Structure formats: C-alpha cells, structure tokens
Amino acid sequence: MTGLAGIVAAETRLSMVDGENGRLIYQGYLAKDLALNYSFEEVAYLLLYGKLPSKTELHGFQCKLAENRHLPAYLIRILNELPEDMEVMSVLRTAISSLGRSEFGWKPNIDQAIRLIAITPVIVAYRYRQQHNLPIIKPSDNLNHTANYLYMLTGEVPKDVHIRALTVYMILTMEHGMNASTFAARVVTSTHSDLASAIVGAIGAMKGPLHGGAPTEVIQLLDEIGSLENAELYIRGKLERGELLMGFGHRVYKTTDPRAEALRSITSELIGEDAWLDLAYHVEKTAIQLLDEFKPGRRLYTNVEFYAAAVLKAVEMPAELFTPTFTVSRTVGWTAHVIEQADNNKIFRPQSEYVGEIPS
Fold first, then answer.
1. Domains of the chain: total
2. What is the pTM of this model?
3. Quick one: 169 and 229 in the same domain?
4. Of 320, 312, 309, which Cα lies nearest the Cα of 89?
5. Of residues 250, 284, 337, 340, which has the active-site annotation?
6. In which domain, by residue range, is 233 found?
7. Which of 54, 141, 202, 237 stands 20 to 30 A from 209 (CA)?
C-alpha cells in the first residue's frame, strides 16, 4: 500500500512544502515571515485572494468575519440536542453539515469560505463551554479572529502575549500542501459537491489521530522535565537509554521545520513573560545540543509539534481542544483549496490494483 505517497494529484498556487530546504511557502511568501509580521486575517486574505490586502480591503475582510460569527438559531438548537458525550470534532462535523443549504450551492466562493472560517471557532467554543457547564459567551465584534476565539473559550479578554503566540501558531497551521484532509476536501469538491460538504470531509480526515493528533507527548515531556535546571539531566538520561525525544525530527523536513523556526522566534521574544514558554525555549536549546552529541549527522531538529505544544499549553488551551484548534486555522487552507479545485475542476478517479482471487 503506497497511500499515494509521492503521487502528484493537483497543481496549486496556494502553498509549497519544501522539505529539503526547510521552506513552507504561501502564495509566494515564506510562511514563517508571514507568521511573524502579519495578522491571521491578512494571511487568510492572502490564501483566499492571492495577494496581501490593502488597509481598506483588510478592514472589509475583518468586518465580514465579525458579521459571520453569530450562530443561527437552528444551529444552536442542534448543538443543544447532541449527545453530551459527543466530542468537539464530531460536533463540529455535524454542525458544519447543517450549514449545507442553498447558501452553499455550487460553485464554492470566497463569501462561503468566510462564513465557514468565521463560524468554526464559534462552534468549537460553544461546545467546549456547553460540555463543561459554563455560561455560553457570545462572540465579540471588536476582537480579531484569534482574540475572539480565546475570549469565547475563557470569557475573559486574553493577554496580548497569548494572542500573539496563538496567532503565529494559527498562521503556521493554516495551510500545508496536499495533506490527507486537504485531499479529502478536493476530492469531494471534484464531484461538484458544495463547500460545506467538502469541509465536512476534511474535518472527518482531521479527526483521525494519524493526521490531526494532538502533541500531547511533547507536553508530557515538558511536564516531566518541569524546570530549567532539570532539562540537561533529564534529556541526557533519555538519550543514554536510547529513548525517543518527542518533538524532534520530521519525516518531510530534512532540515529545520520552518514552522518551528517561526514559533521559536515568537517564544524567544516572550522570554520572561510566560514561564511555560521559557521552559520550552530552554529545553529545545538543550535538546539540540545533546542530540548533536549523541547522534551526530542525523539532522534531528525541532518539529512544529514541539512548539505547538508549548504555545497551546502557554495560552492555557485544554488538551481536548488541540485538534479542534488546528481545525480552526486549517479551515482557511481547506476553503482556499476547494475554491481552487472548483475553478479548474476534474473529478478524482484513481485506479486500484485487484489482489484477490480470479475465478476460473
């Protein structure tokens, strides 16, 4: 079984994953530069429209996102009737499918994409607070996309340091080439199905732990280290015992993961403002030194999961929301791919090789 590894399934202008050179490119821009210098809304605009927005365009885009944050009454009724033990990703899948009405007819467009990008974090926050018997927080029209998400989860206006860190994370996970969930969305679209259906397919793929799995093992590593003083002794012990060091090495990037580079950059700016980020930054430096000592020439660098874990824990994101938060950001990439697929469509119809018995 090849899993279509190495097979080119589509042409795209949206992103390029350059594993050999450690580059992730969005519409002609390095993703790490975008993450460090632009807002979530600006990068989302770039992926959807193919250019960075002017001030006027950005304001209009921000207003459209804010206008589309509010849940319709029928969707609230659906959310209130779903089984109490239904996890957030399954709820999100069901909720998005309920939006597949006439407003999501063929063919997919940017207004439809804005609707889904805006409403996805609202659904996640609603369900999280509902499951934990917390009062539902209505979306704010005055906060940006990332800040509003944190506000709806906690009921408090988030700290600037947390908004900044989560924004960088969300930009860097917004898009990443022809991954499993993006492929699923494009396959659904290729049948001339609607945008909501395509995103439901993508959510279904993201829900699987082999794709959207949370970086919980990295958090366990950092928890076990516990302090700056304990880092070298702990890591050296693991390497001497031949144990894996979670958060280091990547099957695609043969050099530094550019997403980890950007997240490292933002955490280094925030040293002294958040103890958890301080610990992560120190652990990474110590681990890289020791990996070079124990495994010279292996090119084992920090991957995005290491700093994803650091950032998500720093902003006090519950572990159960790691994959949903990944989904909140990746909805931008999915919708951009769906629109691109629809603009130059051909139905996906791959072949399979029969390996069963042949009747005589």
1. 2
2. 0.88
3. no
4. 320
5. 250
6. 216-314
7. 237
> Exactly one of 41, 261, 284, 305 is catalytic; which is it?
305
Per the CB < 8 A criterion, the answer to whether 212 and 116 are in contact is: no
**Unique residue bearing structure tokens 């975008």:** 34
Residues 100 and 121 placed together within one structural domain of the fold = yes
47 & 74 share domain = yes
pLDDT digits (tens, 9 = 90+) for 299-347: 777 777 788 888 888 788 998 999 999 999 999 999 999 999 999 989 9
pLDDT in tens, 26-49: 999 999 999 999 999 999 999 999
Is residue 305 part of the annotated active site? The answer reads: yes
Residues 6+ apart with CB under 8 A from 306: 215, 218, 246, 247, 248, 260, 280, 284
- Residues 163, 234: one domain? no
Q: Which pair of tokens denotes residue 320?
A: 């159960």
> Beta 29-30 vs 15-18: how paired, if at all?
unpaired
Spatial separation of the C-alpha atoms in residues 159 and 150, rounded to whole Å: 10
337 touches 184 (CB < 8 A) = no
Residues 176 and 334: beta-carbon distance below 8 Å? no
| Sequence letter at residue 267 | T
Let me know whether 172 and 234 are in one domain.
no
Q: Has 132 been annotated as catalytic?
A: no
